[in-house]
């Protein structure tokens, strides 16, 4: 079996971190055929398109993408490639597991939290215009279809993975119609999953509750903008964005990506930490039906994280990006597959 995967290395540190992840994935013995494409400014130079047709066709063919970070110009230029890809392929569910790694100092050990964020609508869509000079309007469009679809995704994930609790996060006390609709849809779906405890918290209170005691939550279900903000807050529980994987799921297509940026300050220096993109690749392995390989890499990653010298410099180690990948491959060769992969 050969898995065809669309690879978007991205720019900045993207090619270095995805290159390391690809090397580790291939060391599992699984056969991959990578269809690699540029996106963003680099693609524009070659194809005069930020998301080349060839890339779109490849994703439509493979249904699975692994993506590195792509630089987005601020305050002008082209739209975020991530947002465009989510829209283009209707990747409506953003999935972010938040889980500690050994030896990364954080305020909270043993966090195990999942964030499910609606990816296609709400205020985050940025539908804005200037009514008259000095007055702007920003539209928050919410639909029953998208709210029900994301709630169902969350509850299905909980059922399949034996998670216990889902909290829908909202501001329906103020946004009575839009967030009210989101809650109504979540409640309707929740009724079909009686084994999962369903709760609702207001988003500002949730920020405080999370910082006071993240262990009270199991899964958080949110509309787009709250999900965007709270995902980063939760990343801080496990050491920051450099450790957190991400996935964007549609009904047929899924794109897996690290949530950090292209880090232009360290690009091209073999310094970047590939952990986040590697953890995203583990989600990909589980998605394509290779959980044992995901477990093998996860065990190796956790083993390497027990020895600070083998880590990259951002986490106090001495290894380069490629040396870190070598350490993982070596750890994988000596590791036993023992525990079942549950999360
Ligand atoms: P950034 O995440 O690129 O960098 C912030 C800081 O974290 C920098 O000091 C960087 O060196 C460090 N850092 C990030 N990833 C690292 C890694 N893997 N290993 C070691 N250190 C790492 O965020 P910034 O500077 O705000 O954005 C830079 C560019 O990336 C922007 O153009 C932005 O639009 C884009 N971006 C792209 C994303 C994506 O494609 N998924 C997500 C976020 C930002």
Succession of helices and strands: EHEHHEHEEEEHEHEHEHEEHHH
| CATH level-1 class of the largest domain | Alpha Beta
- CA(first)-CA(last) distance: 25 Å
Strand content: 15-25%
Q: Enumerate the distinct ligands.
A: 1,4-dihydronicotinamide adenine dinucleotide
**Which percent bin holds the helix content?**
25-40%
CATH superfamily of the largest domain, please?
Answer: Isopropylmalate Dehydrogenase
Walk across the major sheet and give the strand order. Answer: 2-1-3-12-11-4-5-10-8-9
Low-confidence stretches: none
For this structure, the CATH topology of the largest domain is: Isopropylmalate Dehydrogenase
Estimate the mean pLDDT confidence.
93
Sheet of most strands? 10 strands, mixed
Question: What class do helices, strands and sheet pairing give?
Answer: alpha/beta
Count of DSSP helices? 11
The structural domain count equals 2
Briefly, what is this?
The protein is an alpha/beta fold and 343 residues long. The chain is built from 11 helices and 12 strands. Helix 1 runs parallel beside helix 11, helix 9 (275-287) runs antiparallel to helix 10 and helix 10 (291-304) crosses helix 11.
Characterization of this structure:
This protein has 343 residues and is an alpha/beta fold. 38% of the residues lie in helices and 20% in strands. It folds into 2 domains: 1-104 and 240-343, 3-Layer(aba) Sandwich (Isopropylmalate Dehydrogenase); 106-238, Isopropylmalate Dehydrogenase, CATH 3.40.718.10. Strands 2-1-3-12-11-4-5-10-8-9 form a 10-stranded mixed β-sheet, sandwiched between helices. Strands 6-7 form a two-stranded antiparallel ribbon. β6 and β7 form a beta hairpin. α1 (14-26) crosses α9 (275-287) and α1 runs parallel beside α11 (321-334). The longest helix has 17 residues, at 144-160. The chain is globular, with a radius of gyration of 20 Å. The mean pLDDT is 93. 1,4-dihydronicotinamide adenine dinucleotide binds at residues 13, 17, 69-72, 82, 241-242, 257, 260-266, 272-273, 276, 314.
